[in-house]
Amino acid sequence: MSAINPLPARLLLVTDRYQARVPLEEIVDAAVAAGVRWVWLRDRDLPAAERRVQAHRLGAVVHAGGARLSVGGDVELAAEIAADGVHLFAGASIAAARARLGPRALIGVSAHGDADVVAAAGAGADYATLSPIFATASKPGYGPALGIAALARAARHGLPLLALGGVTAKRADECLRAGAAGIAVMGEVMRAAERPGAVRGVVQRYAAALAAAVG
User: Fold this and answer.
1) Domain count, the chain
2) pLDDT tens for each residue of 178-208
3) Are 154 and 161 in contact (CB under 8 A)?
4) How far apart are CA 119 and CA 150, in angstroms?
5) What's the pTM?
6) Which of 54, 60, 105, 109 could disulfide-pair with 101, CB 3.0 to 4.6 Å?
7) Does a structural domain hold residue 207?
8) Of 110, 100, 132, 94, nearest to 42 (Cα)?
């Protein structure tokens, strides 16, 4: 793991246009204004040209708000828009991403068990998301829930982990107590955008829960 890159925040916002009722850049803008300091552009099934446009838009919004942007899976796109890092599939080359993006880039990996976490740590990742911790409405059928015990076991490997999947504000505390460095959220923020002002409320609930857990 690189010592240069501490996590930007304990809360990582993950995009999902399928659950969004307004353009992603509007949701991200509202979330950043509410205090989000780290965003992961996921939406990996967008056609390449559309994803490139989306990445440029989100990069402008995120950086204007003083936050950091990680691009899912596409190292070249991350380099093109001067993103702060890339979030890779398990098994992807962390060394190649580091060589392309530089030593200050934040390199993360999607992990789904101990083996993925061990491999990511050994290859020099800065962090990993571990999912799904709980059953989630955002990704029904996305594998069995790993549970808090699995999170605690994986955290012992020393790589900073973000708990992902069904992590509500009420569950933030148990994730951090189990050893997570933070949490990643998606659906609750994406769906909130259809109600005026609701994104701010959701973000603030998560922020308050994380602050209380840390305190």
Assistant:
1) 1
2) 999 999 999 999 999 888 899 999 999 999 9
3) yes
4) 16
5) 0.94
6) 105
7) no
8) 110
Task: Read off the CATH number of the domain in which 61 is found.
Answer: 3.20.20.70
Residue appearing with tokens 């040209």: 49
Is the distance from CB of 11 to CB of 38 less than 8 angstroms? yes
Question: 139 lies in a domain?
Answer: yes
Q: Which are the contacts of 32, defined by CB distance < 8 A and separation ≥ 6?
A: 39, 61, 62, 65, 66, 67
pLDDT tens readout for residues 144-181: 899 999 999 999 999 999 999 999 999 999 999 999 99
188 vs 169: CA distance, rounded Å? 10
Report the C-alpha gap between 145 and 132 in whole angstroms.
5
Q: Count CA within 13 A, CB hemisphere, residue 37.
A: 9
pLDDT digits over 50-94, tens only? 999 999 999 999 999 999 999 999 999 999 999 999 999 999 999
